[in-house]
Amino acid sequence: MYTNMSILSPPNLIVDRGIQLHKMIRLLTCCMGGEGYLTFMGNEFGHPEWIDFPREGNGQSFHYSCRRWYLQKDPLLRYQHLYAFEKDMLQLENKYSWLNYKDDFVGLKHEAMKVISYERAKLVFLFNFHATESYTDLRVPVRLPGKYVPVLDSDIIEFGGHNRTQPVEFFSQDVPYEGAMHSIQVYLPSRAALVLRRED
C-alpha cells in the first residue's frame, strides 16, 4: 500500500481490500494465535516498506532500517485507520485478557461462505472473509445463553471501514447449532470482523 493512501484520493478497491484484510488478519492472529501476540516495527499501521538493517547484502544501507512513524499520525493518510484499529484491539485484549484464557471454542468454519466464529473469554469473534457476500441473519453457535453486545467492529469509519453495521444487541436462542446448545443471529458484512461480549 504505497499509493492511494490519502483520504483525499478517490476510492481504490485494491487499497480498500488491503485495509480490510489487514485488520481482519491481525484480529484473527491475536484472538486465535495462542498465548501471545507480536506487533513489530510499524506492522500495527501497515508500514509500506520492509525492514532491513545494514548488512553486506544491501551495501550497509540504513534506508530500510528506519520506520516512518509519522505516517500513522498524518490525519490525511489511511494508515491512521489501521493504527486506530490495532490500538482498540489491544485495549480490548488488555480488558478481557483472552490471551491468558484457556477455554475456547471454534463454532463456524465454513469454507464456501468464508466465515469463522470463535469464542474465548466471554467474547465471540466473527469473521467474514468473503469479498462480496454479506450475511443477514447469520446463525452463529454460542455455548452460553445471554445478551451479546458489540465491543469491536472493523467496519466503522474510524477504522477505514464502511459503517455497514449498527450497534445492536443480540439475544441467544435455544437453537442448538454446530456443537453448541445455543445460537445467535447476526448481520455480518463482507470483509469485516465483529467482536461480541456476552452479558449474563
Protein architecture, described:
α1 packs parallel to α3. It is globular and about 65 Å long. It is an alpha+beta fold and 200 residues long. The protein folds into 2 domains: 13-98, no CATH class; 102-199, Immunoglobulin-like. It contains 3 helices and 8 strands. The strands form 2 sheets. A 6-stranded antiparallel sheet has the order 1-2-3-8-5-6. It has a two-stranded antiparallel sheet with strand order 4-7. The mean pLDDT is 91. The protein has helices at 13-32, 70-73, 79-96; strands at 104-110, 115-120, 123-128, 135-142, 147-153, 170-171, 182-188, 192-199.
CATH topology call of the largest domain: Immunoglobulin-like
The order of strands across the largest sheet is: 1-2-3-8-5-6
Q: Count every beta strand, where a strand is a DSSP E run of 2 or more residues.
A: 8
Number of helical regions: 3
Overall pLDDT metric: 91
CATH superfamily of the largest domain: Golgi alpha-mannosidase II
Strand content: 25-35%
Taking pLDDT < 50 over at least 5 consecutive residues as the criterion, the unreliable ranges are none
- How many distinct domains? 2
The rough form would be described as globular
The main pleated sheet reads as: 6 strands, antiparallel
| CATH architecture call of the largest domain | Sandwich
Helix fraction?
10-25%
Radius of gyration: 19 Å
CATH class of the largest domain: Mainly Beta
